């Protein structure tokens, strides 16, 4: 189990999801400290036995691993605030921010800073996260293992060897829970319009989503074959899929993922301009 002291900067949605995942995985709450600029969100963590503070430097001073979970636009200012503390304590830095490059963080914290960029997602909160990790050249093998252990406690994690691939991870995992929630919202709404009551509509749509995902995970059978197994020739599924195709669903999904990547690239430029 993780013995390192973990310091989380930012108590928002993503850091909270990681902390929830770590606590469910059995990480000692006394090994976790969390800061947030406003006090309100810290009560949740204090109630669970974590050290909390509105001072980022106070939390950073306690940390072997510092997880930066503020919004991208705030990340480099927060790094500036933490620079002196990090110079003294030399933590492994993990940034979960979309768009902000390790090089940009190192420009603020110092060129000798080991930095991992993690791109997790919010199902981490129930140990079902999917994350990508990239390490700069200062991260040693032990730190790589530690970073992966922390993120994997909340789900699965894969290393990418080029930082630009973190943007692909954003498109397929970081942002992607929202795509599925959006699809489910539409499916539930339409099922209601077709006459099902809201409770049954949601239960059926959500269980189908879960069942389909679990079926994929449980078998070597490829996705296209699993799809074909549902699609009787001349039947209802074929009619639905033909309608999706005719209205350009494939291109729509691809364009959405590309838009996520393009936005991540813009955010890196914005972070650079903001300083
Ligand atoms: N949400 C997601 O699904 C994912 C998010 N990410 C990344 O995670 C990061 C956080 O996103 P998310 O959790 O959604 O955002 P949230 O707005 O929920 O959380 C950000 C938190 O940072 C706090 N904060 C802001 N400035 C400071 C500061 N100077 N010092 C201390 N705390 C501060 C905010 O406090 P306050 O409440 O007082 O404003 C807020 O609680 C982003 O960089 C995002 O790119 C990555 C993958 C997925
Ligand atoms: O929407 C965002 O920018 C963040 C990054 C991935 C998920 N949420």
Write a concise synopsis of the structure shown:
InterPro entries: 6-PGluconate_DH-like_C_sf, NAD(P)-bd_dom_sf, P5C_Rdtase_cat_N, P5CR-like_CS, P5CR_dimer, Pyrroline-COOH_reductase. This protein has 275 residues and is an alpha/beta fold.
Task: Write the SSE topology.
Blueprint: E1 6-9, H1 13-24, E2 32-35, H2 43-46, E3 51-53, H3 56-62, E4 65-68, H4 72-89, E5 92-95, H5 102-109, E6 115-119, E7 129-135, H6 141-152, E8 155-159, H7 165-174, H8 176-193, H9 198-218, H10 223-230, H11 236-246, H12 249-273
Parallel strand pairs: 1-2, 1-4, 2-3, 4-5, 5-6, 7-8
Antiparallel strand pairs: 6-7
The chain binds NADPH dihydro-nicotinamide-adenine-dinucleotide phosphate (NDP) and (2S)-3,4-dihydro-2H-pyrrole-2-carboxylic acid (A1CAB).
EC number: 1.5.1.2
Function: Catalyzes the reduction of 1-pyrroline-5-carboxylate (PCA) to L-proline.
Keywords: Amino-acid biosynthesis, Cytoplasm, NADP, Oxidoreductase, Proline biosynthesis
